[in-house]
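pinned: reference chain
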Amino acid sequence: MTGRSISTMAINTPICNYGWNAPEFELPDTTGRYWTLDKLRGVNGLLLMFICNHCPYVKAIIDRICRDALRLQQMGFGVAAIMSNDIDAYPEDSLSNMETLSQSLGFSFPYLYDETQNVARDYGAVCTPDFFGFNKQLHLQYRGRLDSSGRAPAAPDVRRELVDAMRLIAATGNGPAEQVASMGCSIKWRC
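pinned: its structure tokens
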């Protein structure tokens, strides 16, 4: 087994660092258009998701990510996904495969490519999926999970934790005091 095999060990995100400011970036999407925080943010804030194509945790919830992204956009949040993995080691995560996935699922949000992995480092992203929910001042208020799904989707009627948290952020500017960490595969860093 090589060091580049898919890890089956789940990684959990750290607890939310409330009020932490979103670091600036400029990243291309799958069409070559560049995005910044100012271009992405909505009137109520921003959700950034670190995802990838190959991770079984992402695959288990990608349809829910698409559903909930639409709901959050309707609530006045900007939404974007960022892929930061080493594509040489994980070719399923390549830019062309990112484009295929975003088109086949009809992403309503840009799917950004972090080739240098600097954005993942700046944000402290640790796994896929890793959710960062910011209020309108772009202060971090949520670092939890989408819902109780793991490597397999949870029941269809499970509580939508991310949507509930972002609804609270829209109403009050603050995220929930209790947050359950997201779980997934580690970011695939270049050696």
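why pinned: The chain has one domain: 11-186. The domain at 11-186 is CATH 3.40.30.10 (Glutaredoxin).
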